[in-house]
Specification:
By secondary structure, the chain is mainly α. The chain has 8 helices and 2 strands; from the N terminus they run H-H-H-E-H-H-E-H-H-H. It has helices spanning 2-11, 29-39, 56-69, 79-94, 100-115, 124-138, 142-162, 164-167, and strands at residues 76-77, 122-123. Residues 184-195 have a biased composition (Low complexity).
Amino acid sequence: RAWRRGRALEGGPHEAAVPYGRPSMGGTFGSVMGHVLSDCRLGRGDLHEEPGLRSERLEGMMEELFHLHDLNANGTLEEVELVKLNEKIAILHRGVDADRESVRTRYRGIFRSELDPEGEPIPYTTFRRYMFRMLDALDPDEPTQAMIVDQFIAEADLALAAFPGSLKIRPGTLAALPQKRQHTPAPKATGGPTPQVRPVTYGGG
């Protein structure tokens, strides 16, 4: 995937492939993925219908996208992984002004409403089934679907390259989302003597 990461870093996320002027498709992974996951909802019954086999190229791209999301390389997509990756992407595009809590709330909701209602990890087959059903609802044209998936891959690669320490945890388990820090008051002075620090002298003094 080195060529993808190099291209994303050189050209920037907004130069990744975007479908032909679709108004609902933004120039960032977060906005595109958000529309795919939240604006094109399917009934639970539809999610059990297995999409047909696609071209070898598109199937390979979908597998690559899944593995990019599988931050701890345990073979499943976890709710926290979807949230963390999109949180970092939001930071890339909005800087320190990114509303992290809003991103977390949104993607937790997406995961539970569209992938698993209990927030349990999902296998690749579930991810593939859902994503291809969503792509079919957006546009059945396979070249266009490939462009959309390529956008996802480029943005995920960019986030992983920019935040390797907090996203690439391989192998092992992924830590839960950090909670808000509780303010701990500084310890009160005990009234005892303050330790004295002797100055360091040079030249044999």
